[in-house]
Amino acid sequence: MSEQIDQALARKYDAGFVSEIESETFPKGLDEDVIRRLSAIKGEPEWMLEWRLKAYRTWLKQTEPEWAHVDYPKIDYQDISYYSAPKSMKDKPKSLDEVDPELLRTYEKLGIPLHEQEMLAGVAVDAVFDSVSVVTTFREKLEEAGVIFCPISEALHKYPDLVKKYLGTVVPRGDNYFAALNSAVFTDGSFVYIPKGVRCPMELSTYFRINEQNTGQFERTLIVAEEGSYVSYLEGCTAPQRDENQLHAAVVELVALDDAEIKYSTVQNWYPGDENGKGGIYNFVTKRGLCEKNAKISWTQVETGSAVTWKYPSCILKGDNSVGEFYSVALTRGKQQADTGTKMIHLGKNTKSTIISKGISAGYSNNAYRGLVRMGPGAEGARNFTECDSLLIGDKCGAHTFPYIESSNPSAIVEHEATTSKVSDDQLFLCQQRGLDPEKAVSMIVNGFCKEVFRELPMEFAVEAGKLLEISLEGSVG
Amino acid sequence: MLTIKDLHARVEEKTIIKGLNLEIKPGEVHAIMGPNGAGKSTLGYVLSGRDGYEVEQGEVNFNGANLLDMEVEERAQAGLFLAFQYPVEIPGVSNMEFMKESVNAMRKARGEDELSSAEFLKMAKEACKQVNLPLDFLKRGVNEGFSGGEKKRNEIMQLIMLKPKLAILDESDSGLDVDALQVVANGVNSQRDGERSFIVVTHYQRLLDFIEPDYVHILAQGKIVKSGGPELAKEVEASGYAWLGQADEGEKA
Fold it and tell me: Which of A93, A72, A90, A65 is nearest to A1 (CA)?
C-alpha cells in the first residue's frame, strides 16, 4: 500500500501542484520558510511558530548523537519532506479488496476483527458503519468526565493556554538533536488532559484517533494528569504500520501532578526492513515523564519493529514519594538494531523506581539496554531496582548492557541484576518431544521470558503482544 | 508397534548403538537394562529424533511408518513419548500453559478439536492427583525449581495426559526414594491397557519390582546381548553386569 501512496505522491509532485493548500506534500527540504508554511497551514498561534523557529535554530547548532550502539548511514535532512497533509477520503482504499494482502494476512494472525482491519488499513468508513457509533459513544463518555483527548493540532486551537503551559516543560525544545527537530517540525500527535481527581473512564488509545487522521512521522504527544487523576494510555497498534517515510522522530511528554498516575503502554511494530537490512524505520524517540509529589508514571513497551531504535522512556521523580516504572520487551531479528532503555532521575525524597528490561535477539540483530539511574543530592531514602535480562536465539546475534549509575546521596539504594541466557537445545527438544513445532516452542519460551513485562500491559494488549512476538519470531528458528 | 532392525547410531564422532534389534508388540512392557555407557539413554534420544544423534544404518518402523524420516514433533504426535531423565526448566512458562499447548498439538495432529480450558483443567487436575502433586503445581514454571522427585513425577503426569502409544521411560527411577518410586510406578501401571507399550530403561532392577516387564533385555556396547523374562532382571541384581566381561565404567551415555 505504501508503494501506491509513494507513487501517487510522486505523481502529484511531478504534475507540479504547488498551491500550498491543495498540495498534499511539501517539496523536500527544511528551512525557516518551510516551518512558517507548516505553521500557517495549521493556523497556529504566533507563539507556536516562534517556539518552532527557536527549536529549529537550536537544532542547527546541534550534532546528531553518535554514542548509541547502532550503525546506520548518515541521514540527509534536506532529502525529507516535512509536511504531508491527511489524505482525503477519496484517495483511501474503498474496501479491503484494495489493501495489500500481506497486511491482511498479518491482521488475521493477530485476530483483529474485520471491521477493525478496515479501520487500521485506513479504509474510508462510511456513516452506516458500526465503528462510527463506537467512536461517538466513546467521545461522549470522555466529555462527560471532562477528559480532553484530541489531536494536538486541534488542542492548539481549542485549548491554547493548556498546551502553552505544558508543552516543552518535560522535554525542552532543545533537549537533544531529535527532540529539537521534532519541536521545529512536528505535524501532529495526541493531547490528553485529565482534570483534577478524575479517573479516566477508559483506556485511551491512539488507535481511535488515527482512524480520523493520518499522523506524520514527527508526532508530538502531551499528556497532563492533574492532581489525583489517573489515565492509562495505549500507543500504537499491533498491526504493522507501513510508513512512507524513513525517519520517525517523536516526542512524548507526560506530566503527572501531585498524586496523579499515568500508565503509558506502547506496542511498536514499525516496518523493520527486509532480511538484508534494507529499508525500515529509524525510530528516534524522546519520551519523558515528570512526577510531582506522590505521583506515579509507568512506561510499558513491547518493541518488535523498526530498523534502528533509539529510545529511552524516562521518569523525572521530582516530587517526594513519587514512583517511576519501566517495563520493556525489545525483540530484534534480521539486521535490526535497538539501543533502548530508560532513565530514572531521582530528585525527591523516598522516590522509588523499578526497571525490568527483557531483550531478545535473533538472527543477526543487536540489542542493547542502556539505562541511567541517578540519585540526586536530595533523594533521601530513594530506591531503585533494575533487572536486565537478555535472551539469545541462535549464535549470530548480540546482546549488550550499558548501565549507568550515579548516586549523590548516601542513603539511596540502587540494585542492578543482569542475566544473559540462550534458548537451549534442551528446551527446544523437550517442547518438540511434547508435540510442538520449533516455532511454537521458541515463541512459548520467549513469552515465558517476557512474562513479568506482559503482566504490566492492559489485558487485551498483553494477548496481542504475545501474538505479535510469535509472528515476529517466524523463521528465526532452523 | 515398533520394529528396530540393525540400528547403528552415533553421537558426534562416536558410534554408540552398534547393530540393535528389537520388536515390541502392542501392550508389551520391555525393560532395557545395562551398565552405564551401554547406550541406554542414546536409544531413547535416537528413537525420538534428537538433534546430534545420527543414525548410520538400520531401520525403525513405528506403526507402519518409517520413524527415522519424521521430525521430532511428528514422532511425538504419532504417539512416541520420552520421559526424560533430566527434564529441563522453561522459566516463566507454567506447567498448565505448556501442557495445554502440548495436549492440543497432539489432538490437532490427530484431527481432533482442541480442548476447552475447562476440559483441559479437569484432565490436568486428575493427572495431578494421580501422581500425588498439589494442584498449584500446574501454575509453576515448567520444571522451575522442582526437586528431582517432582521432575520425575511431572514427566509421568505428562505421560498420563498425553496417552502415547509407546512411552520410553529413561531412568525414571534414578534419585527416587521408595515412596516416590511407588508413585511413578503406579502412574505407569495405570496406563497399561493391553494396547499401550512401554520401554523402561533402567540401571537397577528395583523399578521392575513395581512395573513388571514382559521382557528384559540387556544392552551392552551398543547392542542387545541377552533377552529374557522378568527373571533376567533378578539375575542382574544378583550378579551385576560383570559377567558381560566388562567393567561397570560409570560413564554416562
Answer: A93
CB-CB: which of B77, B92, B142 is closest to A451? B92
CB pairs A-B closer than 8 Å: 71
* Nearest-neighbour CA in chain A from B79: distance (Å): 9
Contacting residues of A for B162, CB less than 8 Å apart: 434-435
Whether A191 and A286 share a structural domain: yes
How many other CB atoms are there within 10 angstroms of residue B26's CB atom?
A: 14
At A341-376, the pLDDT tens digits run 999 999 999 999 999 999 988 888 888 899 999 999
pLDDT bin (cut points 50, 70, 90) of residue A117 is: low
Are A118 and A141 in a shared domain? no
Is the Cβ pair A437, B73 closer than 8 Å? yes
| Cell, residue B142 | 515448567
Higher pLDDT, A104 or A73: A73
Q: Is residue B56 part of a domain?
A: yes
Residue contact B158–A449, C-beta within 8 A? no
Assess if residue A60 is contained within a domain: no
Q: Does B101 sit within 8 Å of A447, measured CB to CB?
A: no
With bands split at pLDDT 50, 70 and 90, how would you rate the model's confidence at A122? very low
pLDDT of residue A219: 84
pLDDT at A185 over 50: yes
Interface of B with A in 26-45 (CB under 8 A): none
- How many domains are contained in chain A? 2
| Domains of chain B: total | 1
Q: In percent, how much of chain A has pLDDT > 90?
A: 39
B189, B103 contact by CB (below 8 A): no
- DSSP 8-class letter at A99: S
Shared-domain flag, residues A235 and A329 = yes
Return residues 141-160 of B near A (CB < 8 Å).
Answer: 141-142, 158
User: What is the b/e burial string over A286-304, where b = at least 16 CB atoms within 10 angstroms of the residue's CB?
Assistant: bbbbbbbbbbbbbbbbbbb
Residue B19 has a pLDDT of 93
Residue A212 lies in a domain: yes
Interchain CB distance below 8 Å, B162 and A433: no
Can you give the CATH number for the domain in which B120 is found? Answer: 3.40.50.300
| A298 inside domain | yes
Q: Please report whether residue A174 resides in a domain.
A: yes
Range of the domain at B231: 2-33+52-244
The residue range of the domain holding A105 is: 92-124
Half-sphere exposure of B78 (CA within 13 A, CB side): 21
CA gap A332, A303 in Å, rounded: 8
Same domain? For A139 and A111 the reply is no
Distance separating alpha carbons of residues A39 and A35, to the nearest angstrom = 6
Q: Which residue of B has its CA nearest to A448?
A: B92
**Which of A69-78, A315-324, B192-201 is least confident?**
A69-78
ipTM score of the complex? 0.92
Where residue A242 falls among pLDDT bands split at 50, 70, 90? Answer: very low
- The values of phi and psi at residue B57, to 5°, are -160, 170
